[in-house]
């Protein structure tokens, strides 16, 4: 399981439709032991009392869900799996509770934000076969949330002209060079 020893848990973020899930699948497929956790799935487990996670009143729910995602990711990583978490993990909203819970579990963490033009993200989000997001204003709001990453700006990757394999190549290189560590 030496492949895990050198790889932190990767939080792969960006707006809807940017290609997070496709890139995470491509990257995870390159490791002999790998897990790809879609953080959005953890929100679907809430049967009653669900609040859409982009609404201000969802803050406590979001913190809880991110800590649960971190617990699952930490367990996989501790078992030797290269672990990729994909989701709309926005600094100041989702990143901190997820990162902090991973740190508390003794994990190394890397963070990458994929960026593409708004028009591409809206088109892809609406065209999804699984769970299309039909509200362009929600996609735009979330897209804008990744516009100014502050201290995490070096963790952004423009993917507008990259194939999923190309995105995975860039992520793999940046992980190896330690450029995504947080």
Overview of this protein structure:
- The chain has 182 residues and is α/β, with parallel strands linked by helices.
- Helices cover 45% and strands 14% of the residues.
- The protein has one domain (2-176): P-loop containing nucleotide triphosphate hydrolases (Rossmann fold), CATH 3.40.50.
- Helix 2 (20-28) crosses helix 8 (164-176) and helix 4 (59-78) runs parallel beside helix 5 (95-104).
- It is globular, with a radius of gyration of 15 Å.
Question: What's the SSE blueprint?
Answer:
Layout: H1 2-5, E1 9-13, H2 20-28, E2 34-38, H3 39-44, H4 59-78, E3 82-87, H5 95-104, E4 109-115, H6 118-127, H7 136-145, E5 156-158, H8 164-176
Parallel strand pairs: 1-3, 1-4, 2-3, 4-5
Helix pairs in contact: 2-8, 4-5, 6-7
From the structure above, extract its key features.
182 residues; single chain; Rossmann fold; alpha/beta; 5 strands; 5-stranded parallel β-sheet
């Amino acid at each position: 399981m030496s492949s895990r020893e050198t790889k932190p848990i990767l939080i792969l973020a960006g707006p809807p439709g940017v290609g997070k899930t496709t890139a995470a699948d491509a990257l995870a497929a390159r490791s002999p032991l790998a897990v790809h956790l879609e953080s959005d799935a953890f929100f679907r487990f809430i049967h009653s009392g669900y609040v859409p996670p982009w609404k201000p009143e969802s803050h406590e729910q979001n913190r809880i869900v991110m800590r649960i995602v971190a617990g699952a990711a930490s367990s996989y990583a501790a078992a030797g799996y290269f672990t990729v978490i994909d989701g709309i993990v926005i600094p100041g909203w989702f990143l901190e509770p997820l990162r902090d819970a991973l740190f508390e579990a003794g994990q190394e963490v890397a963070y990458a934000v994929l960026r593409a033009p708004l028009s591409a993200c809206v088109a892809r989000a609406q065209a999804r076969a699984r769970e299309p997001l039909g509200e362009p204003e929600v996609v735009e709001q979330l897209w804008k949330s990744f516009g100014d990453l502050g201290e995490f700006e070096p963790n952004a990757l423009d993917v507008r002209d990259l194939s999923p394999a190309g995105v995975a190549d860039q992520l793999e290189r940046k992980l190896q060079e330690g450029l995504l560590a947080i």
